What we know:
Layout lengths: L1 H7 L3 H4 L6 H24 L4 H18 L1 H7 L10 H18 L8 H20 L9 H19 L7
Helix pairs in contact: 3-4, 3-5, 3-6, 4-5, 4-6, 4-7, 4-8, 6-7, 7-8
Amino acid sequence: MGSLAERLGVRTPSLYKHVGGQDDLTRRIAVLALTEAADAVGLAVQGYAGRDALAAAARAFRGFVLDHPGRYAATVGMESSGPDDPLAAAGERLLGAFLAVLRGYDLPDADVDHALRTLRSLCHGFATLQSAGGFQWSADIDESFEWLITFADRGLRAAGRGTAAR
Length: 166
């Protein structure tokens, strides 16, 4: 908190008028990040279905993580304190955007949670690895990301009931 106060040009005690400490500050950053990510993904998927919606959501999510790696990092492992926690509401909005994508795949209800976790793992893993400079070999990163989208689309179509939007 001391270095933050220094960067803001205020004394450390002045910060505590606005935040309750490091944990509160991190939670507020996580809420901001989830809200912004939900806005980006939600806006990106409007009017799309199937692979187009998946691609739009994945690209928007990846773009958010690459543009705001520190904010996004604050969301990882952050748990909601209850249904009235703004973190819960922001997280639900982001999940809602990805659920909209999954509706285009006509998945059995029992598979939706698994599909959400799979998409989060794919998008989170790729974006955080890229953000950390984790792709050091010669293949084009954007081509690899498009390959990931195609891979996820094929898997979701296979898991669906065969009526996914094309």
